Each structure stands twice: as structure tokens, then as C-alpha cells.
Amino acid sequence: MSKIEVIGLGAGGIDQLPLGIYRKLTSSESPIFIRTMDHPVVADLQKEGCTFIAFDSVYEQHDRFEQVYEQIVETLISESEDRQEILYAVPGHPMLAEKTVQLLLEQQKVSVEVTGGQSFLDDLFTALKIDPIEGFQFVDATAFSRSQLNYRHHLIFCQVYDAFVASEVKLTLLDDLSPDHPVNIVEAVGSEKESITTVPLSELDHATKLSNLTSVYVPPVTGEDLNHQFFRLREIISILRGPNGCPWDKKQTHESLRKYLLEEVYEFIEAVNAQDDQGMVEEIGDVLLQVMLHSQIGEDEGYFTIDDVIKSITDKMIRRHPHVFGEVNVNNADDVVTNWDKIKKEEKGVKRKSLLDGIPPESPNLLVAEQLQKKAAKVGFDWDNPKPMWEKVIEEINEVKEAIQSKDQPEIEKEFGDLLFAIVNLTRYYKVNPELALYSTNTKFKSRFQYMEKQIKEQNLSMEKMSLEQLDTYWELAKKQE
Q1: 230-319 domain in CATH 1.10.287.1080?
Q2: The model's pTM
């Protein structure tokens, strides 16, 4: 089997090369393949008689770095098969931020031997005067996502080759940091041309010199600058429930918080109905607060944590979406619902005594009615068109009238219940949530009535002394102003 020996050129000049690597390079009778000629040691090695075959031109042939690395690896494998054994030199240490080396190690066509080299991290830590034990994250600037970044640690981006890569780094960081947040551009660390320049984040891609020897350092970020990240919310809730926290928060229980969760959900719905984006941000935040408080109480009592909550819902979403995360095929949303119900039934394990079991009794009764009807419809106990539904509503209205004529109060209550149940059946057919529909009407009534109050008060009139006809006039005004 042919062989590729990978050699690390270190971070600086020829004086930093280990003696063994220096001898191997200078004694090579064949040209040495090198990822890039843009390295401080290359000129010195050329003076020592080394010749190189570089891949710098490959970078100009592709739009994505993945394609560059793949072509380099393909060429190296082909050359090794022709020559039986070749040397391949890379900047720094072969096992540090060298995608071509990783790709070579993954393939099975040729043998790969990695020879050490000095990592530029040692020089980088020295130049920046940082201790990685405090927390350190090393990121390839050409292939990363925002979710990977931990701003609480020393954060270093390597391979900031050019303004385009620097721009991608900048735009990602701007999602979390302010435009004037200071960042450090580190150039040719460990060499005679080493330099560190501090610039505002907004100017990162305006640096005059960027190369494969450029790194970007972001010092650890603390305090309110990271208030938008989840860990900060978790810290705050823990402090509020802690020994020196808030007396009100510390005394809350799952039971005492129930009403607040309901209130916050309805306030969010109100913001949605009003199409109030900022209101939605605030109100869904209040819902999240309730989730965090319940989770912190669970952690304080030793039963569960927010991690358990997140893992539970993440696992559930993966299990119940096999058409996304598995091999199941679906044709439409109805197939998704069918699969969801089937998987849900398998997860529950214990077979329910009735098809109608599993509806929380604490739910608003309009929603309970809707859920009962939905469950019954799954076995075909349902009308397939609205005509008999409308007839049922009219029938129930007549029965209400008959009960009223009989002056039988329990019967009147029962018949009104039947009428409401029939109306819920209609809303379900037309895909209208009855609870939200009634909520919308309540909100509309409140708005119109308050408008009436305001207009009547401005005219120094008293609602209590006005006739129904007079009040209706103001009601019509309220409808028109909408």
C-alpha cells in the first residue's frame, strides 16, 4: 500500500522546527507537497534546497473550502499511488485545524503517517497572555455555527483567510455582541511578523492584512451582554430561588403557580390576536418564566431539572417525527397526525379503559367538549358534512325554548349545555377553536363597552340612567370606530 507522511511545519520560522522534521524535509529527494506556500518557514527551507508542490491555486478554483480540501486529498492519494510514498507538509501541527489531514485519515486507499510539528497554540496563548484552563474554545472560521459558540470562554477563530471569512465571523458574532465589542486580530503568531490588533467587531473584515496565518480572539464575555442566552435565564431563576433570593419566588410551589401559567398563556394569546410582535415577545417570555420556575422548583426538590424537561421534549419530537428523523414516508399533514397518534399510543404503554380518557379535567369545558368530539370522530362517530350539524343546533335551540317554558331550571341548564356542545361540534368542523373564538368575542365586547363608557363619560352622562335604545346608539358607534 502506498504511503503519505504528513509533516507539521510549526507556527514560525526555521529555528522553531524540531531537528528530526528539519532533517526529513531537507533530505527529501522528491518535491514536498504543501497545502500553502504562505508560511514563514517556506522561504528558509527553499534556501536549504527544498522544493515544493503547492495547492494554493486550488483555492481559486472553488467557492467552498470543502471542495478545496476534497480536491487536495484526491490529488495526494493519486500522487502517492504513482510515487508509492510522498511527503505532505501543513502549517502548524497536522492534528490541529487541518481538514485535509482529517480527510486523509478517514480514507482507506493509502496509508497515512502523521509526524508531529509545533502547534501555534502555545505561541498564541503566550502572545494573548491567556490560560486555557479558564475555558478555551478553538473554532474553524470556515466551518462553524452560532450555536457552537461559548462566549464565557476564551474564543479563538483560526483560518480567517480573507475578508469574506472575516465577514462571516463578524456577522455571526453580531447576533450576540454589540458592533463596538472589542476583538483581537492576531497575525503570524510565533514568527517575526507577529502582531495583535484590537478593533471594534464592526471593523473586523476591514483589516488591511488577512491570511492563512490570521486568527481572531474574542475575550470572555460576562454580565448583561449575554442576557439573551439561555444559561443567563437559568442563573437568574436559580438566584431568585436561592438562599439570598426573592422571598416571593422562594415560597412558590407548583400548586401556587398554576394560575399564573394560565394567565400568561391567555395574555400571550391576546398579543397574538392583536398582532403585537413586541407584546408577543414579552408575553411568551412570561410563559417561559413559568416553565423555568416550575423546573427550578423540581430541581430544588430533587425530582427533575430543566435539562430533564428539554431532553424529554427533544426526544419526543425526534420519536414523533420519523418522517423527518427516520425512514418513514408521509404524503400530507393528515399522515403526520396519524403517525403521531400511533406513536403516542405506543409510548403510553398502558391501554386506556376508554377512548375518551386522557383529557385533563382542568381544561376549559369548551375545549373538553372539542376533545371529546375529536376522540369520538377517530372511530367514525361523527358527521361528514355540516348540514346535520346545523340541524342539531336548531333542534337544541328548540329544546332550550321548551325547557324555559316548563320553568324547569335543571332541565334548562342541561339543554343549554346540549346547545353549547352542538355549537362546539360546528366550530370543530370549520376548524375553529371554540375557546379562542369565545375569547375573541369577549375581547371585542370589552373593547366596545369600554368605548361606550368613555364616550358617555365625556358627555357627562350616566349609563345607569340611560335607556337601552340610547345605549344601543353608543354601541353602534363603538362598532363603527373599529
Answers
A1: yes
A2: 0.69
